[in-house]
Amino acid sequence: MDRQPSARSLRGLDWLNFLLADVQSGVGPFLAIYLAGYGWNEQRVGLALTIGAVAGIASQTPAGALVDWLKSKRALIAAGVAALAIGALFIAFFPSFWPVVTAQMFIGAMSSFFMPAIAAISLGIVGHRLFNLRQGRNQAFNSAGNVVAALMMGLIGYFISNRGVFFFVAVLAVPTILSLFLIRPDEIDYELARGARDGEDRGNPASVLELIEDRPLMIFLCCAVMFHFANAAMLPLLGEMLAKGKGRTSMMFMSACVVTTQFTITLLAAWAGRSAGSWGRKPLLLIGFGVLPIRGVLYTLTHNLYLLVGIQLLDGIGVGIFGVVSVLVIADLTRGTGRFNLTLGAIATAVGIGAALSQTIAGSIVHHFSDRAGFLFLASVAAAAFAILWLFMPETLEWKGDAHAPASMAKR
Question: pTM of the full predicted structure?
Answer without folding.
Answer: 0.76
